[in-house]
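User: Could you go from structure to sequence for me? I need the amino acid at each position, not a summary. Structure tokens:
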């Protein structure tokens, strides 16, 4: 199975680092919107494609712009929500990485489906601060769940730390923050 991980477009939370990381619910910038539109040419979608999206506004907006006019499956899952990388036991979830509620997602992204098989615990806490051992278990569950789509192309719109965490798990290669994908950067992984 090939997964294509795509990092969201430029978000408002990156414009004035590190202070802007304390912005709650940041949206895409004008540049981020342009980057999301570029995905239409780079990865043309069809009805048979699946997009799995992190429940954060900037990832949802990236997927919404990219998939506009295409009736592919769009599934929001907290298992691809922001993840701290490398993991720090004393680390805190920043306001820019707080998961949107199911109600907000349903109200603002009406053609997206919420992954309801997961307990509400995942929808409230996400994977940001999960210790590596627990992340490995939930990540393997997620990868197994992806296999139920069969031969469909699966795109995952997520975050730099999350993508790098999954990549490290899948490849077994130790990675660093230098391996983070850029805005709307992508990574194809076979697993």
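Assistant: Here is the amino acid at each position, in order:
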């Amino acid at each position: 199975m090939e997964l294509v991980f795509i990092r969201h477009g430029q978000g408002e939370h990156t414009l004035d680092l590190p202070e802007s990381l304390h912005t709650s619910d940041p949206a895409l910038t004008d540049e981020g919107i342009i980057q999301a539109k570029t995905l239409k040419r780079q990865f043309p979608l069809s009805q048979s494609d699946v997009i799995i999206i992190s429940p954060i506004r900037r990832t949802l907006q990236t997927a919404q712009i990219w998939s506009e006019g295409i009736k592919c499956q769009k599934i929001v899952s907290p298992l691809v929500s922001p993840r701290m990388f490398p993991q720090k036991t004393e680390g805190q979830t920043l306001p820019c990485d707080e998961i949107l509620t199911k109600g907000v997602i349903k109200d603002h992204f009406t053609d997206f489906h919420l992954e309801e098989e997961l307990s509400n615990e995942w929808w409230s806490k996400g994977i940001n601060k999960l210790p590596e051992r627990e992340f490995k278990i939930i990540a393997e569950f997620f990868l197994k769940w992806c296999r139920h789509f069969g031969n469909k192309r699966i795109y995952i719109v997520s975050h730099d730390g999350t993508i790098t965490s999954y990549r490290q798990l899948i490849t077994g290669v130790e990675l660093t923050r230098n391996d983070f994908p850029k805005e709307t950067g992508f990574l194809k992984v076979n697993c």
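One structural detail worth keeping in mind: The chain has one domain: 2-190.
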